[in-house]
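May I ask for an example protein's residues together with how it folds?

___
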Amino acid sequence: MTKINGTSNRFQVLISLIIVVLLTALKLHAQNPKLNKYNFAEGLTFSGNEDYSINLRGYVQPFIELKNSTGDGVDNNLTRFRLRRFRLRLTGDAEKYKIDYRFQVDLSGTGEVGDDGSDAPILDAWVRYSITKRTRITFGQRATPTDNRELYMGSHTLQLVERSRLTSAFASIREFGIFLEGSYKLGPVAYIKPSFTLTNGDGLNVFGSDFGGLKYGGRLDFLPFGLFTRFGQFRQVDMVRENTPKLVVGGTYSVNNGMSSRRGRASGAILYLDDMNNVALPDYTKYGVDFLFKYKGFSMLGEFAGSSADVPDNITQRVRNDGSTSRALEVEGVQDVENFVRGRMMLGQAFNIQAGYLFKSLWSIDGRYTYIDADEHSFLNNGTFYNRPEYYTIGVSKYFDRSYGIKVQGSFTYVDADGGINDLNSDPIGGDEWIARIITSLSF
């Protein structure tokens, strides 16, 4: 399959999606549809006979970021204007056949955590079958349950302007594979939600060679006070103002056999070879616990994530970015191959705690603290993108309705940097960093 890239190709995807929707709508019209409707921020819904329906919705998010760092008498400023997200989502439901599906694209060209661009706009492409009312199996590309809880939350429903740096450091975000999920009632109100995954372990849109083995893992969630109202478990703000306390506590664990990137996002980004020129890759283990609490407008999210690596002892070469190989793995400060390999992976631990209150006027005040503890040999010590152990963020948001149709958010982050950090041009920064962000979200 040819890799999709470039602005023109992103618009080709958009045009193709519109054609699919129009053709499907015409087909439904020929079947005497029961309902055609549009609800603001909930998209356009077409319904036909045989209990079949499709929904098209989307949102756009213009974004401004101002970053300042001061140290050693040098004042560094960076201003960035961009379209943070431009997403279209098509979902379908064939209740008669117990099947539903989703296809979602992002035409902004920006990665989910904002650190890098995305050549391929396809985000979600999956089909799900309901084995029973409580157990479902999904095949395709989607967000993985083995990431931290924040990745469960829709990007247009975030409590603050951006996701936490814990997510940036450890989340693989989306993967292709098989996902088995259940939801079972325990006693009068409590629920337990187990999930198991078997994926490629190489992130989204792997159109070329798939290096390494498979990734397997799972998540177990416990809801002692019953289910959240109106998908509240998957949205950060307590928009519905829960009348009774709602809590979900969960744990995750996954093993990626033969990982060829820093955290399992891009197949083949980092490759090693043995003496026979066979691919030899490290295994990557990730684990975490998290919770979400909501009650009468107050919400709190807490997350912990950690990782470790098992480096094979037969690595003797690495593949450079240009495709050539090098037998000299040692670099300054690294004495053996194992530490060199570890230094290119996201290894360490982190926790994120954030809370906020939504007033009845739909104004929200929120705060977050994130701490990252990197291993001695880890890419989390990289001075350009990481090596910043503490993040303090406050934010203010105004929601114009409870459907997330229109909102404006602003945040201010103080970054307590460690020694030896750089800017994006690799120029040294002597002090800490201050980041101001503003984002507007319009759903349709």
